[in-house]
Specification:
Elements lengths: L2 H26 L6 H20 L3 H17 L25 H23 L18 H7 L3 H14 L8 E3 L5 E3 L1 H14 L3 E3 L6 E3 L3 H14 L12
Antiparallel strand pairs: 1-2, 3-4
Helix pairs in contact: 1-2, 1-3, 1-6, 2-3, 4-5, 4-6, 4-8
Amino acid sequence: MDALPVAKSFIIGKIFNAKWVLERTKRDHALRVNVERISQQSDRLTQRLPEIHQCNSMGALRGLEGMAAKEYFYAFDDLILKSKDDFFFEERTRRPPLDRMNALLSFIYSVLTNDCCAALQGVGLDPYVGFMHVDRPGRASLALDLVEEFRPVIADRFALTLVNTGVIQAKDFEERENGGVFLSETGRKAVLGAWQRKKTEQIVHPYLQERISWGLVPYVQALLLTRFLRGDIDAYPPFMWK
């Protein structure tokens, strides 16, 4: 099977949802954010979508995804509305995260990837054999593929809500000798408790047009991926939140 069309679907979903996050913040908080910058970055994401459709190699797709991620994160600091001295975003840092916002994102991405891994196993797919991410021993490549479309609309919005509502504060983090910043044990417990509550919230799935909980979204998408791989549907429909 040609992996490129499936990988494209994952990234189209990711970029579409990233644009939605920017547009939703602009709509809801127009008086508190840099509308011009958010609009500019949203427009750039829109321009990436036809480029994704037209690209003809996995290397080109990874390059376009990387550029789109930078364009999205360029406006991310504008989405942080509270405690700006404690929570700010300049660029994505990992291994280790170098500030509180990156630490929070990394932790939530890890939790969401684990949920995707469980969802894939639940429908009989091997989470370690991916389409876009290169297979490595011990690396859940397919879970990393699937999580891409969920990062903006589930993980990023959840992280922003925790900060903007004061559920997570500066005291919930600790800095280590290597300069890395991580959630404390108390912080991790607070995030996981809020995560379990988030997963019970009901939505209407944009493709199925049926009510499900946020927590079931990875499982439903894994089911749709299975249906595509069996030939029951012509293409994999990414989760595109509206």
